[in-house]
Amino acid sequence: MTSLMLIGVRYYHTWSIVKKISLEVCRAVGEITLLYTHTSRESLKMELLADVCLLPGEDRIIDKDIIYICPFNGAVKGKVLITNYRLHFKSSDPDVPVTLDVPLGAISRVEKMGGASSRGENSYGLDITCKDVRNLRFALKQEGHSRRDIFELLFRHAFPLSHGQPLFAYVTQEKYEENGWNVYKPIEEFRRQGLPNNKWRITFINKNYELCDTYPTVLAVPYKSKEEDLRRVAAFRSRGRIPVLSWIHRENQAVIVRCSQPLVGMSGKRNKDDERYLDLIREANETIKLTIYDARPNVNAVANKATGGGYEGDEYQNAELIFLDIQNIHVMRESLKKLKDIVYPNVEESHWLSSLESTHWLEHIKLVLSGAIQVADKVSSGNSVVVHCSDGWDRTAQLTSLAMLMLDSHYRTLRGFQVLIEKEWISFGHKFASRIGHGDKNHADQDRSPIFVQFIDCVWQMTKQFPTAFEFNERLLLTMLDQLYSCRFGTFLYNCESARDHHEVRSKTVSLWSLVNSKMDMYLNPFYTPESGRVLYPVASMRHLELWVNYYIRWNPRIRQQQQSPVEQRYKELLALRDEYLKKLEELQLSDSSPSSRLANSSTPNTSSTSSTPSQQYTHLHTPF
Amino acid sequence: MTSLMLIGVRYYHTWSIVKKISLEVCRAVGEITLLYTHTSRESLKMELLADVCLLPGEDRIIDKDIIYICPFNGAVKGKVLITNYRLHFKSSDPDVPVTLDVPLGAISRVEKMGGASSRGENSYGLDITCKDVRNLRFALKQEGHSRRDIFELLFRHAFPLSHGQPLFAYVTQEKYEENGWNVYKPIEEFRRQGLPNNKWRITFINKNYELCDTYPTVLAVPYKSKEEDLRRVAAFRSRGRIPVLSWIHRENQAVIVRCSQPLVGMSGKRNKDDERYLDLIREANETIKLTIYDARPNVNAVANKATGGGYEGDEYQNAELIFLDIQNIHVMRESLKKLKDIVYPNVEESHWLSSLESTHWLEHIKLVLSGAIQVADKVSSGNSVVVHCSDGWDRTAQLTSLAMLMLDSHYRTLRGFQVLIEKEWISFGHKFASRIGHGDKNHADQDRSPIFVQFIDCVWQMTKQFPTAFEFNERLLLTMLDQLYSCRFGTFLYNCESARDHHEVRSKTVSLWSLVNSKMDMYLNPFYTPESGRVLYPVASMRHLELWVNYYIRWNPRIRQQQQSPVEQRYKELLALRDEYLKKLEELQLSDSSPSSRLANSSTPNTSSTSSTPSQQYTHLHTPF
Questions:
Q1: Around Cβ A508, how many Cβ atoms within 10 Å?
Q2: Fewer CB near the terminus (10 Å): N or C of chain A?
Q3: Compositional bias of type Polar residues: which residue ranges (chains A, B) (predicted)?
């Protein structure tokens, strides 16, 4: 290997040797970026670890000679560096060039492996389980309790909240041109949707989080509902999460309303206020029958009655209830665990398809997507819907945000997608802290679950089926999932707005969107073709769903990494060529006032490299499911 | 539905109504092309079937009112037309617009369904099994033996060879601008490869098919071999199919040699001539050890000794034998049958992945591809190889042609691919007639097997993994598989060259390449980027192989048909735009001699719509398998 430059490769095994890395390059790319060149053995040891690009505010904690038990290359000698942000390993043997770069936030569990008396080569060391579908094993020399210090330091810094320490997001000194905290402004977003109007009003009843402590401060509710109605409804909805508007269809005025389950309980309690309130929602656009999508399997909804919950019964006139059969957080967690088992470290080859089926991961993806399709289809044909699960912060967020992604092309832009995440996930209280377990050592916590990962997987499935419909690319999705765990940005921290306010996230941490929007080029899909009116209905059948290999199996060096597809590369070249020609044409026309100078004004699309030819007339692609 | 024009839709269910079709359009597109517009109910009955576009030489045999038992729409009333080439059905109900267009050659079996006394609606009729992964059922009125005539006529014309009638390829009067029979000229192809040279000579020993009646007349053999050597070797190789050169590597002179198994038998016979001959092959480029790839599983190769066959033993010094574990024609036939069971008419959704696995179809694809990868890799690194199975006309053809497709970018062009098919499949005696059963009523013939379909599937897998490496598109592959059965062209008729000569195929029938090369635009991949030196190594792992939905599940209207991908569409638009700009630039430069007029000569690629920007420097993409 001679000289090879990899931009934007993060946390991957890399088969080259780090020689030199400049802080400027790191900052320019906005991520850990490694510049690899061939290095002599002599200079290697000198430079080992000296050239890791640390983030501003990131500090070295310890470094140590160590052996990485690589599942693909066997034992690899090298050096590990631990900072307050990352674990970095680099092999010292240039013939086995392995580099690891793992944010401590991605670690879910650190264990000692092998006792003091353990035998066998490399049996004494550390076993690290990661949240991002991989495990890491390191071996140390058995003499002198050599692992004691590294284990304790790693444990403390990987789980700062369990040790009374701040998350790295509060320590980092990163600065970006853009302030990502300005991406989402609830009132502006409602205004974009055409709200308030004569049917829907904006209320600030929750400005002190008194109506519902897991809801945002700004809510949209039926115009006819009074503040005291909202309070009475809140008493009948789990955790006060009342039905509020998430999205309204510009033409037909049908709405997506989200909430938690009604507190029906074993005795089958009724609440006239809740019933009347749902009817106000129905009336707002004269929907004949309001459709209530309960994300849960029927039996689970029934079982919830035992703990005071339940679902809307026949007493809700003018409404029909549909169960979407999506399993709960525990089932999803176990499914991803099974998936990890068949892809890491080795991919089960001989019975790949049936092994994949037995994880049920794609089946769950299918149910989530097909639920969202039903929501989108109903709204698209003019009927208002209510979506809930039990608490309305997991499956409900998946369904409403996916349906909105299908219905509203704005959310398919790079900035619009950020708004969607901020709105449906962050502001509406998806419990990121509990689901991910940021900085918390309690790896077996039953509240943890990959609900957001599953949602991003659904988005990825949509981008695969509609390769020109999304302004952002796969790299954005991968970056989001990596930063979901890293604790480098404030974006995914805490369970809800009120907690975020309390911990001053917006003033004390950096938003992930600051990074993304300072380097938008990296996250743009060159094939993007804006089509504002188009509703996307992905095919939610097993034959059309794929395992997201580039995410779940990316640590495996035997899986071909699809960095940039050759088609994408060709397309970008062609775009550049078009722009070059256009520039030359304009230059020629400046020195020439012939009739062809109309060209630049009439028949040419705009010249930015992300622009597109005039958008085509598409019909809705509605495929049966 | 208002007005909709579908070009190139063939044999599909179409959800529109045929109104008018002009012969010119048919001829222009070169296939059955239907022009659909909305039609009133009144005019419909009048026009039913009057507007089917017949081929020159195609004649009406019978038409009849009939009910098509559509697996997707239920019973559909309409009219069926049978000609000497096709079965055409059109529904008479404009609300259920179903059209079928099936070449009689695609029919493998016609059976009567329900006796004269059978009860139940639509239980009396015809059951038609097709070679192209579908079945058709028609119901007729029970009175007056109404199905007798249609059954007999269909049976006679679907299986003309069983009734002493000519295949339709001998009847059609189609004319094309290009003569596809000129595509492949063996000597020219050898010359392109750099042959003859001082190590390899061309021999005409087989000009009367006396050495081997299933081989072509022109063969390339080691320079040092004498004609009498070849005769002695032929006596020791199954059906006289001696080892001959198929391809030579321009730089390292390593060769791919193909043949049939040696006639070792139970007693373990040796043949010094055969051993010496293989050593001549090895010596030609000083390969240290000649690698013999036996496509079969080891046990099958051993079992073949019982019928006089076998494999090369230790007596072959300087050679190593590797079994590639690919199953025989019977296993492949049963595998595709199982695949048909899970995709037609209904796709098994709930256990899709494990059902797919249980057909083993993708596993067979994987073994064929990975065998070819091993051949290509060996040759690429300078070692000559011999490939055989039992007779050397099924698995051997798959392996050599796929390896050549990986190694030689010429075969990845539209014309080069035709040469590859003509050479490795047609001239080397893949038994198309026996495998497909052209015009033969004996549907249960054990010689039938989808070996060529499997090969085209492997090619499709490669085009998916290398979307810019092939000049041709998926439509070409689909067209080839449709015409494989249709008996409209002479290309895939008969088992070998000698039979083709005897039946005067080249003078009495039209070549499929006449159709293709008269309308090349339709079969070109816009993303194609020529890279002459690149060796393609696809990943032959289950995670990277896909079921070819657009072929195997295309009859199912619930499967989204991927006509042209939006990315492809965008790319073509951009190509057109580039060409437009380039033209304008040239116009401007004609009236202007400014320095920018250098543009057209230096930095611009050529302007044809299939051209590409300057080819990039790629390294070989060699992924472990």
A1: 12
A2: N
A3: 616-625
Which residues in chain A are closer than 8 Å to B581, comparing Cβ atoms?
Answer: 578, 581-582, 585
Q: Which of B53, B130, B389, B496 is catalytic?
A: B389
**Residue B156: Cβ-neighbour burial (10 angstroms; 0-12, 13-18, 19+):** middle
Give the distance from residue A530's alpha carbon to the nearest chain B alpha carbon, in angstroms. 12
Residues of A recognised as catalytic: 389
The percent of residues above 90 in pLDDT, for chain A, comes to: 75
Domain match, B334 and B416 both: yes
**Residue-wise pLDDT tens digits, B505-541:** 999 999 999 999 999 999 999 999 998 889 999 999 9
Task: Produce one character per residue of A27-49: b if its CB has 16 or more CB atoms within 10 Å, e if not.
Answer: bebbbbbbbbeebeeeebeeebb
- Tell me whether residue B389 is annotated as binding: yes
Shared domain for B596 and B534, answered yes or no, is no
CB pairs under 8 A between A and B: 146
Chain B residues within an 8 Å CB radius of A559: 543
Q: How far apart are CA A103 and CA A141, in angstroms?
A: 25
d(CA B141, CA A400): 53
Predicted-complex ipTM score: 0.81
Instruction: Note the helical H segments in A193-319.
Output: 227-235, 272-284, 298-303
Which domain does B38 fall in, by range?
A: 3-158
Residues A540 and A585 in one domain: no
Inside any domain, residue B569: no
Residues A467 and A507 in one domain: yes
Q: What is the pTM of this model?
A: 0.86
Residue at A407 is within a domain = yes
Taking CA atoms, what residue in A is nearest to B594?
A588
**What spatial distance separates the first Cα and last Cα of chain B, rounded to whole Å?**
49
Mind listing the pLDDT tens digit for each residue in B140-187?
988 878 899 999 999 999 999 999 999 999 999 999 999 999 999 999
Distance between CA atoms of residues A186 and A206, nearest Å: 13
* CATH number of residue A116's parent domain: 2.30.29.30
Say if residues A465 and A410 touch (Cβ distance below 8 Å).
Answer: no
Domain count, chain B: 3
Residues B559, A581: C-beta atoms closer than 8 Å: no
Measure the CA–CA gap between A158 and A86, rounded to whole angstroms.
9
